Amino acid sequence: MTQQQKTEAINEKAAMINELKRKLDSTDYVVTRDIEQGLEIPADFKNERQGWRDDINALQAEIAELEATETEEDNPSRG
Q: Which of the 8 DSSP states describes residue 77?
């Protein structure tokens, strides 16, 4: 993997994380409203939000793995 490929992969995953965080942010009002009103938050809604958080965590782990990976430029003898 070249440095450019590595950077592109990291940027793509970071963009996905940002989109998932936007989804969480846009639905935070529902959670706050329901908690303040003492309402039960629907299970499917909670599960969807948890799925987004799980996806964020997985993507962050993938980014960390990519960042730790040597590129061809880092170690030309591996090519």
A: G
Report residue 26 CA to chain centroid gap.
16
CB atoms within 10 A of CB 21: 13
**DSSP label at 74?**
T
pLDDT digit string (tens) for 40-76? 999 999 999 999 999 999 999 999 999 999 988 777 6
Q: Are 67 and 10 in contact (CB under 8 A)?
A: yes
Distances (CA, A) of 12 to 5, 29, 47, 56: 10, 28, 25, 13
Residue closest to 12 by CA, chosen among 50, 66, 53, 49: 66
Distances (CA, A) of 58 to 13, 64, 67, 78: 10, 10, 14, 28
Both tokens of 39, joined, read 């309402």
